[in-house]
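Quick question, first post here. What does this chain look like in 3D?
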Amino acid sequence: MLIAYCVIALCCGNQEAQTMLMRELQGEWRCIEATENGISNESGKIYCRIEDASIVIFEGGKKIVEKNIKLQGEEHKADLVDQSKPDRVNFGLLKVEGKVLWICVSSLFDANSSNQRPKGFVSRRGEGGVIMLKFEKKIK
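> Answer (accepted):
Ran it through. Tokens below.
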């Protein structure tokens, strides 16, 4: 069911479906895979908390990223906008399948050019500036 909401929300831009997707994103997610420029990083200490449209990413209990999620109305396109500096945008992709969340973003900031958006949910060596995070929903 959630996959259907993702397709409707991101592909068709349906506001109701986007609202339902954002509702499904709420809560804490444990990182199970982290890759930057094709190099795997230790993911076990990373988790994120999503409240409303805000995503906060922690590493070892320390807040390292605080952004707003902005769905773009096209399949999987979602950008992470810095809460204190809205001109700092990580263009990216987001998808949810069941209890797994993928976020793949450019680590480069340029609010005027979305051509830095990753092409898929993968970070390869030599691509430069692509971060891929895979999370699993924490069950309370």
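The first helix runs from residue 2 to 12.
Strands lie at 27-36, 39-41, 46-51, 54-59, 62-71, 78-82, 89-90, 92-97, 100-106, 130-137.
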